[in-house]
From TrEMBL:
Signal peptide: none annotated. Belongs to the UDP-glycosyltransferase family. Transmembrane segments: none annotated. CDD domains: GT1_Gtf-like. Residues 1-13 have a biased composition (Low complexity). InterPro entries: UDP_glucos_trans, UDP_glycos_trans_CS. Its EC number is 2.4.1.-. PROSITE patterns: UDPGT. SUPFAM superfamilies: UDP-Glycosyltransferase/glycogen phosphorylase. GO terms for molecular function: UDP-glucosyltransferase activity. It comes from Panicum virgatum. The lineage of its organism: Eukaryota, Viridiplantae, Streptophyta, Embryophyta, Tracheophyta. This is Glycosyltransferase. Keywords: Glycosyltransferase, Transferase.
């Protein structure tokens, strides 16, 4: 179900061959321009695949460093007959002042971040030339909010542009209201509590936790980028959001009203994948551990007994924190799968300690050094909880799997996502981190002790009425999430509405704020 406001631009071009063979007529052709970072990329590609299942042609574009991460997933969809295409465009490193071969999420240093965004922005012209030269002609651009240059791409093609958000409505609305109502005016202490204005629930944050979109991060030019992104967001023809309407209806409606534009909730988009094979390939063609090996290990564990631990593709624990986490997991007594990012980057002493831990917990603990098939792991019956950094992609995957969370936010939207999990949805237990740990000017480390880790894991995995209430609430949310993507559900209806609304020759959307799908 979508909340309506500003109408999408009418489309004037006629039908064209959908390019998938057979000369059929395409109802719509969505061009996805995702961000390289996996938390943005994976749900964007899943959304493209879902739209393709409903008759739309979907073309995913980006530099090779982006397309390579999802090529296996897209090729699998193509083999099943879906009209989805993946087209890569090489970056002009020299023109953007970017080191040869630099890649945002994998290898680039923070000092070159803006150069990377400039290099990606230079793809506008070659992408437009490609889209003009290949049928069918696009009917809509769906772009990650970190690609504001797609405003010019859509204008050049004469088609509408939708912003893609891999963040929940609660978090986006809180961020928006904190800035819109100048909530931090006169508040000098970055750790002073401030009530988020404009929403019924009392939500308390600090400037350190929610400084504003791309604010408070000591990377040159990010404020300028944030302003550019904000202008592009304000000019969009609507928003596509990976969330579930029934999970946060007041916040979806609140954001639609605050922005005065349509919001289509289409999540959880990870539920496009029904089997372990496609789940395992999401976001990486060569994970550090194969899905089959992981699932065999889990098959030997009792239902709901294993805790999964991962802090996503960016955050990385310092050496002291890594060891405290290791000892806390060991002391909890629960079987665990722990994804250790960039394990080879730690010194020899830390690597030795991890090896010693593996020996002590052999058979009970599985350490994955690199990318893991997360969604496949979370969907296994043996997994009973998730220690997470609270990236929304991970949080929603946990919700779809019906799992409670230990919340351990590190930066940006993750503190508000934590509040969503703990305070709004009632499925999380916080380790108590109050300040961001990543993308900060100083190397200050907020150490979460082994005892806190042990207790938090026991709180979500153990017995007692409170733990059972969290699990029951998680199961209820999972049922809502699955109903939303099935025929007759809100997300399913919104996908159909997008295909119809942005198809060739579609009429302009109505300008009221009534629901667009039911």
């Amino acid at each position: 179900m979508s909340s309506q406001g500003q109408a999408a631009a009418p489309l004037a071009r006629g039908d064209a061959d959908d390019g998938a063979g057979g000369g059929t007529k395409a109802a719509a052709h969505f061009v996805f321009v995702p961000l390289n970072e996996r938390g943005h990329l994976i749900p964007a590609v899943d959304t493209a695949l879902l739209l393709a299942t409903h008759g739309a042609v979907c073309t995913i574009v980006g530099p090779p460093s982006t397309t390579s991460k999802v090529r296996q997933t897209v090729e699998s969809a193509q083999q099943s007959g879906l009209p989805v295409r993946l087209v890569d465009f090489p970056l002009d490193y020299a023109a953007a002042g970017l080191p040869e071969g630099a890649d945002y999420a994998d290898r680039i240093e923070g000092t070159y971040m803006m150069n990377y965004y400039r290099a990606v922005g230079l793809l506008r012209a070659p992408i437009e030339r490609y889209l003009r030269a290949h049928d069918p002609y696009p009917t809509c651009i769906i772009a990650d909010i970190f690609n504001p240059w797609t405003t010019e791409l859509a204008a050049g093609l004469g088609v509408p542009r939708l912003s893609f958000f891999s963040i929940c409505a609660f978090t986006i609305l809180c961020q928006h209201n904190l800035e819109r109502f100048n909530a931090y005016d006169g508040v000098e202490d970055p750790n002073a509590p401030v009530v988020v204005p404009g929403i019924e629930r009392k939500v308390v944050v600090t400037r350190a936790q929610a400084p504003g979109f791309l604010r408070g991060i000591p990377i040159p030019d990010w404020v300028e980028l944030a302003d550019y992104i904000e202008r592009a967001r304000a000019e969009a023809d609507g928003v596509v959001m990976n969330t579930v309407l029934e999970m946060e209806p007041e916040y979806v409606a609140g954001y639609a009203e605050a922005r005065g534009m349509n919001v289509w909730t289409v999540g959880p988009v990870s539920l496009y994948h029904h089997g372990a094979a496609t789940l395992a390939s999401r976001g990486d063609s060569a994970p550090a551990i194969g899905a089959a090996e992981c699932l065999r290990w889990l098959d030997g564990k009792e239902p709901g007994s294993v805790v999964y631990v991962s802090f996503g593709s960016i955050a990385q624990a310092g050496p002291k924190q890594l060891l405290e986490l290791a000892l806390g997991l060991e002391a909890s007594g629960h079987p665990f799968i722990w994804v250790v990012r960039n394990a080879g980057g730690y010194d020899e002493a830390v690597r030795g300690s991890l090896a010693e831990l593996e020996a002590r917990v052999a058979g009970r603990g599985l350490l994955v050094r690199g990318w893991a098939p997360q969604a496949a792991i979370l969907s296994h019956a043996a997994v009973g909880g998730f220690v997470s950094h609270c990236g929304w992609n991970s949080t929603l995957e946990a919700i779809a799997a019906g799992l409670p969370l230990v919340t351990w936010p590190h930066f940006t939207d993750q503190f508000l996502n934590e509040k969503m999990a703990v305070e709004v949805l009632g499925i999380g237990v916080s380790v108590g981190v109050k300040e961001p740990l990543t993308f900060q000017a100083s190397n200050k480390e907020t150490l979460v002790g082994r005892g806190v880790v042990e207790k938090a894991v026991r709180d979500i995995m153990g017995g007692g009425e409170e733990a059972e209430r969290r699990r029951q609430r998680a199961r209820e949310l999972a049922a809502k999430a699955r109903a939303a993507v099935q025929e007759g559900g809100s997300s399913h209806a919104n996908l159909l509405d997008l295909v119809k609304r942005f198809g060739k020759g579609a009429a302009a959307a109505p300008s009221d704020k009534s629901s667009a799908a039911s």
